[in-house]
């Protein structure tokens, strides 16, 4: 390598690093390139309540709020935050670590004050994004980053459920979506799934019967069957039929999975739906919040060889869709009042300007307040989608 050769890019060096060594590699790279004095990778926990530093496991450093303070602000707003420190010679730059809309955490970098210029901050933001992609890939080869997200041990059922998920958020030209599950560390049968293609986005919200391992096994079978049918190129109704047969053949109608299946045409906003059970869908258009009503069809696996039919509705630019499981709309307070549509509508109006993942979290927070308990007794799944539509070419 001659003197004029800058050597491998930072991205290439991150890719070449061992999966467990991304943080020390990032620390070395930023020290060389921008004179960084220190670096901390903070990952969001499963409940999206705190950010935890990736350090030597099984121990981690002190947590910080995922919604307050400089790091929490960077995580919530998805913009870099520059923090003035007690030392006038240094600044802290807090950068969102996000992969295709899925918020993983925050990269906090201490730099000399002269380095805290807009151009350097932009370079650091690009670096944080590259690091996020490597963290996502490294999760296939090491437990380090999954363990660092935990404030306590997950139940086995929750472990199974979290491994099923495609992520907690996704963003593309036509839409942005975010999702939230509670109780995060002991979730059982409620889950969600999505897949984006060149022409459409398929989204499902599933509410499985039972509790614990039984519910997690049912959810795993249901999601696996739906993915198998989807990847075989079947239409939405046929996906439901195949999953229905798979669940019935295993449980004989004794256990079943209530599922809402949606497929949105990315070019036109036409949405196809199969309502196979209890999850509900709401549409927020302007200041109006309305439930999107479908013809109710049997849950997957309740009866043998059930035939399903698709229905359609239209999504317009600026619409927000919210899909919720029974654990949200059917939950009662200690006085017997259901969460209901009234409270839900209030929360949706109050969070209209927030990002979908924050809106989904706010719905669950409102539910927890409604039941007056630190943790829910029933599973709750919320998926929020903002539709912007495809820009005409």
Spell out the key features of this protein:
393 residues, alpha+beta, 6-stranded antiparallel beta sheet, 11 helices, 17 strands, PPM-type-like_dom_sf, Phosphatase, hydrolase
What this model shows, in words?
- It holds the Pfam family SpoIIE.
- GO terms for molecular function: phosphatase activity.
- This is Phosphatase.
- Keywords: Hydrolase.
- Residues 172-387 form the PPM-type phosphatase domain.
- Strand 5 and strand 6 (102-112) form a beta hairpin.
- This protein has two domains: 10-149, GAF domain (Beta-Lactamase), CATH 3.30.450.40; 156-387, PPM-type phosphatase domain (Phosphatase 2c, domain 1, 4-Layer Sandwich), CATH 3.60.40.10.
- The protein has 393 residues and is an alpha+beta fold.
- The chain is 33% helix and 27% strand.
- The mean pLDDT is 92.
- It contains eleven helices and 17 strands.
- The termini are far apart.
- The strands form three sheets. A six-stranded antiparallel β-sheet has the order 3-2-1-6-5-4.
- Helix 2 packs antiparallel against helix 4, helix 7 (212-231) packs antiparallel against helix 8 and helix 10 crosses helix 11 (356-371).
- The longest helix is centred in the first third of the chain and has 21 residues, at 118-138.
